[in-house]
Design brief:
With 125 residues, the chain is mostly helical. 72% of the residues lie in helices and 3% in strands. The chain has four helices and two strands; from the N terminus they run αββααα.
Length: 125
């Protein structure tokens, strides 16, 4: 009988509301004392970790979207350049065989950096 009274007193002393804070005995269900001391901090840490992971995932998704947008913009710029070259009556580098592309590029006064970029684009496709 005495043990039952002690258990009731201990559980009634630590009543918790929905947010895990101690409240009155009148309107909450009793939790054992260890719940507030051990499990609540652990749950808080887990929630914080989950929030951090979600934030990291959102940031990664945003970065990927930005990279995709940049790639699309670069592709559009390249297409516009190619269309400008075609409008001038010249063949774009992507349609010229590799050996001829080097000669064509040098004869049109292009720099080596652009040539390297064009060669990489040509070999990648």
């Amino acid at each position: 009988m005495r043990n039952a009274e002690n258990i009731f007193k201990n559980t009634a002393r630590l009543m918790l509301d929905a947010e895990g804070r101690a409240t009155s005995v009148e309107n909450r269900e009793a939790f054992p004392p260890r719940y507030e001391e051990v499990l609540l901090p652990q749950l808080d840490r887990e929630e914080e970790e989950e929030e951090e992971e979600e934030e990291e995932e959102e940031e990664e998704e945003e970065e990927e979207e930005e990279e995709e947008e940049e790639e699309e913009e670069e592709e559009e710029e390249e297409e516009e350049e190619e269309e400008a070259i075609v409008a001038e009556g010249k063949k774009p580098l992507s349609e010229i065989p590799f050996d001829d592309a080097v000669l064509h590029h040098k004869s049109s006064g292009g720099s080596l950096g652009l040539l390297n970029r064009d060669i990489k684009v040509m070999t990648a496709t």
